[in-house]
Amino acid sequence: MSIPYGRQHVTQKDIDAVVETLKHDFLTQGPKIAEFEEKFAQYVGAKYAVALSNGTAALHLCALALGVEQGTKVITTPITFAASANCVRYCGGEVFFADIDPKTALIDLEKIENLLQAHPKGTFAGIIPVDFMGLPVDLEKVRALADEYGLWIIEDACHAPGGYFIDSKGEKQTCGNGAYADLAIFSFHPVKHIACGEGGMITTNRKDLYDKLQLLRTHGITKNPDLLHENHGGWYYEMQTLGYNYRMPDILAALGISQLERAEAGLQRRQAIAARYDEAFRNSKVCFFQYPKAQIKHAYHLYVIQVEDRKGLYDYLRTHQIFAQVHYIPVHTLPYYQSLGYQKGAMPEAENYYAHALSLPMYPTLTEAEQDFVIEKVLEFCG
Q1: Residue 91 near residue 64 (C-beta atoms within 8 A)
Q2: Residue 291 and residue 246 in one domain
Q3: Between the CA of residue 90 and those of 94, 111, 202, what are the distances in Å?
Q4: Does 17 share its domain with 77?
Q5: Average pLDDT over all residues of the chain
């Protein structure tokens, strides 16, 4: 029995949806794209959605649409997948890291404010907070900082579709709904909540950014008669900016639509799995993250524990065919970022988190028997 840290769940209905699309006229740039965009926007509560080839492409286009260029300075967290920072570098911008809050492993808002105060106003252009593990960042507080310093916000919500926090007015703010962030991005990688194989989505409430994104994802080319500088006929198109081929194929959109239909059930199952882990580790040496459940809906892409001998536990679990994983190596310690001058030791909370963190199996089809086996082996090692 092999138990990975994450696993996609593909049903016969998903397969049928893809096969049905294969039988139709469009494999790309067809009607399934618009359908997926509309349904996903409704799911997160945003006005607009733009489907893309993957989550990294989504981050890149967000940075481009917001005007990141040579020398643009942007703040993000060191505990994330490298793409959250790389998107700034793709555009020639500079990345500044703000350390994490050890209680949540999310970017520390106080550290963001300290960074902003340490530089003249106007130094920074934006912030990329990450809903790490599926735990929503309090974007209302981030927005207050952003407004004070004139910054935009890209919410990296790849771990958190369906998650939310309650704002100061008592209103539920779903991850990606655009209430506080200018743009939000999602990923449809196989281990994510909605598994398309690959794929990404940007959501926003800003029509100006939505229009830019649509142009950027298709080579900067448009055939829209309302946007053309001149028109030679029905065949005519214009390349109006330098864009990319970041389109999502219709067959992936069809799979995404089918997966979206059971997204909430998958989320509920993830929360049930997390609750069982919490209960099992409550009186043990295993540390796990706790949060005010009345104020937050955790989407549980990951269930992360912290232990003294992380390497020992990682290896021990593998001997029992339990393939736990580590999320993430702090971005500022990776060789590429070290070559840019980032220093180990600069983010002590992130580095301490990394030294002890391990992601346990977390996916909707994990059975109770499999989870019990994982718990047994973790407690067996940790005592």
Answers
A1: yes
A2: no
A3: 10, 25, 18
A4: yes
A5: 97
Give yes or no: residues 228 and 274 share one domain.
no
The residues, any chain, with a CB within 8 Å of residue 225's CB and separated by 6 or more, are: 231
pTM: predicted TM-score of the whole model, two decimal places: 0.97
List the domain range (segments joined by +) for residue 348.
263-382
Q: Are 361 and 3 in contact (CB under 8 A)?
A: yes
Whether 192 and 301 have beta carbons less than 8 Å apart is answered as: yes
pLDDT tens-digit readout, 51-104: 999 999 999 999 999 999 999 999 999 999 999 999 999 999 999 999 999 999
* Nearest CA-CA partner of 132 in 101, 110, 153, 111: 101
Amino acid at 52: L
- Regarding whether 273 and 133 lie in a shared domain, the answer is no
Lookup: tokens for 329: 């190596």
Token pair for 374: 């994982």
Question: Which own/partner pairs from 264-268 qualify as long-range (CB within 8 Å, at least 24 positions apart)?
Answer: 264/162, 265/364, 266/9, 266/193, 266/364, 267/162, 267/193, 267/299, 267/300
Give yes or no: residues 255 and 304 share one domain. no
**End-of-domain residue from the set 260, 290, 305:** 260
**Domains in the chain: how many in total?**
2
